[in-house]
Design brief:
Layout: E1 20-24, H1 29-40, E2 44-49, H2 52-56, E3 65-68, H3 80-83, E4 89-92, H4 105-123, E5 128-134, E6 143-145, H5 156-171, E7 178-184, E8 186-188, H6 197-206, E9 211-213, E10 220-221, E11 223-225, H7 226-238, E12 244-248, E13 254-255, H8 256-266, E14 272-274, E15 288-290, H9 293-297
Parallel strand pairs: 1-2, 1-4, 2-3, 4-5, 5-7, 6-15, 7-12, 8-11, 9-14
Antiparallel strand pairs: 10-13
Length: about 300
């Protein structure tokens, strides 16, 4: 998917009267870029996180309305819709405990905390919500993954996300609101977790290492730069014509080995790849990528 997909933002006209966008998890990898994308488009951003000191270091800090929000301290007696300045829509990116995908913490602690916050907001007046899920919701399916496929998540993180989605769909029958659920695929860029593939590769290059240890690299994945992910998240959130599930992906299958080689070439870097040093992950299918037809339809 090239840049032409986001070349026109006429869909924003649907939200001419909208002023305030709430972004949770604003200091996270995707959150930082989403906040900046919204500010570029002239929206008032209400940014939340659990760490004000980290937020104060971000270049957007003085351009947003920042509010501390720690879900561990949730208080059912508070009207969070009012507390968070009655946003016109919410982009819910917050999620704790990553990149540990298998910890039951996601189901036992994260899931109820996020349900509590979202139900409070929705029952007190929030009418439009966009939540980021994960491609892991599809489970161990191989090939091109489309939104119409049945989910069968197999790690705790994906199970918790899928349960949150199903709960939101159920409550929407009683409390009317627009729901957009974005399934994120693989992304990369500045600010990513230091244990991620590209972060480790950049670290090896910066350290003048001669060899980079990695898996065999034959896995097939779907990658997007985080800047593009932020564009798409904002685009999905701001439009009204397509609700429900949307894959946020390139739609282009590529082997991890070829992705790494292309990254090195584009950045004019050289390092020997020690393929096969690590075993393949047991919690991911060997070959999968996203169907982006729904995503494309937003821009028609």
């Amino acid at each position: 998917m090239g840049r032409s997909l986001c070349s026109s933002y006429t869909f924003i006209r649907n939200y001419i009267g909208m002023k305030k966008v709430l972004v949770t998890g604003a200091t996270g990898f995707v959150g930082n870029y989403v906040v900046e994308e919204l500010l570029r488009k002239g929206f008032t951003v209400i940014a939340t996180s659990s760490d004000k000191k980290k937020a104060a270091l971000q270049r957007w800090f003085n351009d947003v309305v920042y509010i501390d929000l720690n879900l561990k301290s949730f208080d059912a007696g508070i009207n969070y819709f009012n507390y968070l300045h009655q946003p016109d829509l919410m982009i819910h990116l917050a999620w704790e405990g990553l990149p540990n995908y298998t910890d039951d913490f996601h189901i036992k602690e994260n899931l109820p905390r996020h349900k509590n916050l979202l139900e409070n907001l929705l029952r007190n007046g929030l009418k439009d919500i966009t939540v980021t899920g994960t491609c892991f919701e599809y489970g161990m399916k191989e090939g091109c993954l489309s939104e119409e496929m049945q989910c069968n998540p197999e790690n705790a993180y994906a199970v918790a996300k899928n349960e949150l989605r199903k709960w939101l769909q159920a409550i929407s029958i009683e409390v009317k609101f627009n729901l957009k659920w974005i399934r994120l695929f693989y992304m990369y860029g500045k600010g990513q977790n230091q244990n991620s593939l590209i972060s480790q590769l950049d670290k090896a290059i910066a350290g003048n290492d001669h060899v980079f240890n990695m898996s065999g690299g034959e896995q097939i994945r779907d990658f997007l730069p985080v800047e593009k992910v932020a564009e798409y998240v904002v685009a999905i959130a701001l439009q009204k014509k397509l609700l429900g599930l949307v894959n946020c992906c390139s739609g282009i299958p590529v082997t991890v080995k070829d992705f790494v080689k292309d990254y090195l070439q584009r950045n004019n870097k050289m390092i020997q790849l020690n393929l096969g040093y690590y075993n393949y992950s047991e919690i991911e299918p060997m070959s999968f990528w996203g169907d982006n037809k729904k995503l494309k339809s937003i821009f028609k």
